[in-house]
């Protein structure tokens, strides 16, 4: 029966065998030479990729490079990247992986994991959700003592210190984590180990997630960071806490009020989706809560602030900048310094080096600021300060 | 250069085809020779001269043998080739063993420069030896010219990872071959199938095996250990069979017909049957140039068993210079003896599914040795396979999708189905009937092959360089 069905299916296909073979063989040769034609003639428009390392320069030829097969390796990479089809190929391949296999990671994509309902996660958040970490965890007691030393150094100079911990998308949205991505215990996070010592040593700290309401969406499936409303809440919480630590300072007063409407995700809400480099990522129908920034008071005293932390700080700083909260901000982002002013981040010239190896970033430099906000996401809490605490210990 | 690289697919191959078609028939062998040497130069620039010089020596010695009839010329040639292989492949291993003993005795170890293994030396050395012996046995005549002989040793489709060709199989085709109109079509479709096997199945499944073998014995659980070794068995089969398909397909594009190298090995009913289906060209070479000269089946039982073990120990060492490879060969030799001692008769009374399962189980157990770097690793893996206290299918520190994801599952399922379905005669017959009834075979084959080629290229670009497992041998 199956055979008859097949015969029926193909009964109308009476193609001359020779012509068929020839046509298909021409197609094959066409595929083989198409990258060359594309490179020479630019038949198709180039497709650009987000955050993709590319080898643009033709590999340097030398006899040692050739004999050690380095030239060959580089040539392979150059050919892949410069045939004019690289973007097409990567996007098509990523789309297949994402659509059919729920795969977000590839050689040309950051470690993005696809959870339930196509929710995207940076893999470090899934690791933290599971209470596992790639790098060795510090002793939480000693770690807390180091933070305390920093706080004491600031306080001795009459300055203010605040440790801020931003929340983990996976921990707040476990419904988006697949069963196959769950291992270990979410209660096993480094934050839960460090927290008792933060209390014991009376460290000024603020865990943003503690203040999040259960029925409000603070993350978007397509992004790694907080949504706009959550950023506003975070900025307000930090601002209010700093105000309580510095009663004489005149920090801005504002409220983030939900309008009850929902808006489409945009900008940073789509950062992980953009990193996927797929053809047709359509933000899911979920929406971001709309809010209104109600400014009650703008500051008169301008402080010089220093923020040390992750990309989560950027959203906070953008908002506080709108409110003219500080006279100046130095932002140490991972191990680089970004001099921040009016939503512009200027990289430190010593990029690639640890900012704390620079003479500029001695304890003297740091305590020269009116306040220091040491920030981290809970997933990176064990790497807090990215060298700042060591720098204080040594100096 | 490997076949599954962008340089090969989109630069070398089109250029080679273009030149091959432009030049007249009389010059085509020279075109192939030029591109074959270029291919090898790209992979191992430091040793291309050794390939040329040693081939010239073979050619000259075989010529002298033809003129004088003196066996010594052939002996020199064979010994020289073996010495060359031993030098490049086994010196490091040999000196490591000596140094180990010296260190244990408190003597300063010998210092030496690590010798780099030239690509494909195990394959082309066996082919060169086959030429000399064929000439000696008069199953082949001396190559008509040095370029013809050099083309035999260096022809790029088989140069790096076989199939291991015997000179008398290829000599005629080098001198005069008729390229039929269907050859190119048959060639590129076979090539695409091989590329698909390598990139879409072997590489995907290989990631699972790599992830699992990278776990330490403490975290590896029994189900994952089985998943790892099954994945490795599929990886090594599809990797090598894929390469062989590509080699056979490429050769066909230029009018050559290579011998088949695989015939559904995992549907074998005994280990003897397995070796008739796995790496057929190596088995044939071993039988023709080692097993038969040792006496073959026409010796007493004890000598026969010794010969079997010896041949398979050599086969193990051929795969790599380590004790685990040697043990892998030894184990296969022992199982072949068990076959001869009576298992072949017993297995005939058992259902096919039992035979196939037992054979696959034995092969899996030997793959553990093949995959392990040392006995310690192999021992830990064996104990994980049979640890009844770790029967859970989760890991303490890794989530399952870090080890195997949806695409890996799909590749593994396809790999397992393609490996074992040929064992069912009913299914094979049904597939044959459907295929015979299909009126548009070429269209289906062609479109399927184009699809595989494109999909494999996309995966290749996305996942990057991945060498063939057998490339290292």
Keyphrases for this structure?
heterodimer; A: alpha/beta; seven-stranded mixed β-sheet; 14 helices; 39% helix; 17% strand; B: 473 residues; mainly alpha
Q: Give the beta-strand count of chain A.
A: 11
Relative helix content of chain A = 25-40%
Shape of chain A: elongated
**Residues in β-strands, percent of chain B:** under 5%
Q: Which structural class matches the secondary elements of chain B?
A: mainly alpha
Distance between the termini of chain B: 15 Å
Mean pLDDT of chain A: 80
Low-confidence stretches of chain B: none
- The chain-level structural class of chain A is alpha/beta
Q: What's the rounded overall pLDDT mean of chain B?
A: 88
Low-confidence stretches of chain A: 9-15, 348-357
Helix segment tally of chain B:
20
Please give the share of residues in helix of chain B: over 70%
Radius of gyration of chain B: 23 Å
Largest beta sheet of chain A: what is the strand line-up? 4-3-11-7-8-9-10
Q: Largest interface, per-chain counts? A: A-B, 59 and 56 residues
**Distinct helical segment count of chain A:** 14
Supply Rg of chain A.
27 Å
What would you say this structure looks like, in words?
The complex is a heterodimer of chains A (395) and B (473). With 395 residues, chain A is an alpha/beta fold. Helix content of chain A is 39%, strand content 17%. Chain A contains 14 helices and 11 strands. Chain A has helices at 2-10, 17-41, 63-67, 70-82, 86-101, 123-129, 140-156, 169-172, 190-200, 228-245, 271-275, 312-322, 363-367, 388-394; strands at 112-114, 120-122, 160-166, 205-207, 253-263, 288-297, 303-309, 326-333, 336-341, 344-347, 371-377. Chain A has a 7-stranded mixed sheet with strand order 4-3-11-7-8-9-10. In chain A, strands 1-2 form a two-stranded antiparallel ribbon. In chain A, helix 10 (228-245) crosses helix 12 (312-322). Chain A is elongated and about 90 Å long. The termini of chain A are far apart. Chain B is mainly α and 473 residues long. Chain B has 20 helices and no strands. Chain B is globular and about 70 Å long. The chains are: A alpha/beta (395), B mainly alpha (473). Chains A and B meet through helix 1, helix 2, helix 4 and helix 5 of A and helix 1, helix 9, helix 18, helix 19 and helix 20 of B.
